[in-house]
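Backbones bend. Shown next:

***
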Amino acid sequence: MRDKVIFLVLGAIATVLFWIFRVELYEALYTVNGFSDQMYNTGAYGTVAVITIAMAWGMAAVYYYVINSVKFDRWYHWLAMLGVTCVLTPVVCYIVAAHLLEGFDYSTAEFTFQVYNILFTALTFVIASFSMRWWSSNCRHTPIPQ
C-alpha cells in the first residue's frame, strides 16, 4: 500500500512541476518570435498545459478504472489509449489556442507547437499511468507487469 501511495505522490509532484515550469518547458522545445510572445501574453501556455494534464490523467483514469477489463489489459491496449490521448489532446489544444490567438495568423507555428506538445502529452500519460495503475483491479499489470 505504501508503494502505491509513493507512486501517486511522485506522479502528482511531477505533474505540478510540469505546471510550474510549463512556459520554460514549452519554450525550450519550440520558440518563434511573435508566436511565443502571444502564447505567453494570452495565457495560452497555461491553458494548453491544463488541457494536456487533464486529458492525460483523465484518459489514464478511463483506462484503469472505467474500461478496467480483463479483455483490454494488454500492453498494446494501453498503447492504443496512449495513441488516442496523443492525437486527441493536441487537437483540442490547437482549437483552444487558435481561439485564444484569434486575430493573429500563427496557424503554422501553432501546428508545430502542438506536434511538440505530443511529447508532453505522452510523458504526462505515462506518469499518470504509473501513478494510478496500482489500484486497478484488472489493468494494474499494464503496460509493464509488476
